[in-house]
Fold this protein.
Amino acid sequence: MSLTSLNFFVFLFASLVVYFLLSEKYQWRWLLAVSCFFYVYCSKTLSVFIAVTCISTYVISLLIEKSELRYKDEMKRIKSGELKLDKKLAKKQNIRRKRLCIWAAALINVGMLVVLKFWDLIFTDINTRFFGAAEGFVPLLHIGLPLGISFYTFQAVGYLVDIYRKRVAAERNFFKAALFITFFPQIVQGPISRFDQLSSELYSGHKFEARNLSDGFYLMLWGMFKKMVIADRAGIMVDYVFYDYQNFTGWQFWVAAFAYAFQMYGDFSGGIDIVRGAAKMFGIEMVDNFERPYFSKDIPEFWRRWHTTLGTWFRDYLFYPMSLSSAAQKISKSLRKKGHLHLAKMLPAHVSCIVLWLANGAWHGAGTQYIVFGLYHGILTVLSEEYHAKLVKLGDKLHINQSCASWSFFQMARTFFLVAVGRVIYITPNFGASLTILKSMFTAKNVGIFFNEGLYKLGLDRPDFYVLVFACMVLLVVEIFQERMRIREWLYGQNLYFRWGLAFGLIFTVLVFGVYGHGYDAAGFIYMQY
Amino acid sequence: MREEIMEILTELRPDVEFEKEKKLIDDGILDSFDIVSLVGELNDAFDVSINVQDLLPENFNCVDAMVELIENLQEEE
């Protein structure tokens, strides 16, 4: 059930009606019921994997809490003299028990994710290379990927680590814990919510409010505009050019690479808008996952504004533990003693950043191109962090006004360019093809495509190309306003006629200019199978 | 202790007025790279071990919060 399908809207409407008919005490139970229905409807037998995640997360969360309670009890008894045990040893044992729980959770849940995501990909390649056929020496699983497996796995692991760090208490009701993992709008492609942010929203009841309904409606409409008018239209050009890349060259690739940047953004952020809009209709606030990333002035800022919940997840659960680990701190200390002060300060963060980006690359898929993509962004982030202050100083020396609009525009264009190039690295099925494309892009000569109708031979005819460019400009203008004001608040200050006109205009635009595939269904979301 | 923390902070980010800022983390003034460097320096200077659990915005939003965090850690150890 795609988030843009008629089935989804019927399902959402029915869920909303019953939700608001029920007393607030029973509303979360209904949310769990519809979330389970949604998941089983979409994933059929693959639902068993999310069930394993729910059960293991629940059991392990209680074990972590039990260990903490035991430690507190031990400390009490040590203080009263009832127990003869070293305080430090009790603390150590507690940490060891809790760590064991986290490792068990990671092994079960991340293990399932890794096996389901990579087993067939890796062994198809190995079988083909060394045994001559895909179905060769190592048997393939042919299971497929359960809906939103990465997102709910990350969310569940984050929840357990937060309990480990005593930031949240374990949820004692299994069904409430299960709702946190399976909540139906977010299960498709995130955002990756934190327990302290989402749980109270889910478990407390909500009264029907027309404002929530209309807020959610506008948000969903805007998401559908981004997804169906921009992303799916840009996707036609992207597929056309990059799948048959041998037939294209130079500037044609640049145009398709920029279209791909808008496709990715429209698809992912549009999907998140639909998710947040659907949740908002229930009165549930979800964190935004995108903060207008294409207005970023450098690569680290871009990744702070793109898929923010994944970024903060990687930061809190991988980057900090790695860069502040005792091994990293020891290396840093020894470098400091030897007088390498700058290296001591930067090395743990830089190495962790590169490792994290390699993990991020691997999350996007199995293959050299994904590793190179991760390395590319890791290196750019490290370089940016290392040389940012120096470049600002250099700019001052060269008397460059670094606070004027044209300089900001230059910085944003530079970031957009670097991001667009980075995406080309993994857009093709193999890295060799990506290198061919990149070489062609950087030796582009066919500038004539901008003057001889060449732009309309990239999968989109002239009217469709114009619709894409115009829709991207609308997106850009709206986002410029979003940088300065809260558009929804502004909207509610306008006349009802204007608001309805805008809503009908958006509906009309999505219906007429949206790209529809088989059965008038939009294309699947790119991140749905991540 | 306060002066020493100020010295570390100023060396880390000379562009920030640390006496004035009260939302160093909430406003994104210090990023994750700054935090890692800062924690390393603080651990070394005050012989404490700030771990991941301590990386809460309320512990790093201003200089006084950092002083309090370090004092608490020194007491614990």
Summary: The mean pLDDT of chain A is 90. Residues 210-290+483-521 of chain A form one domain.
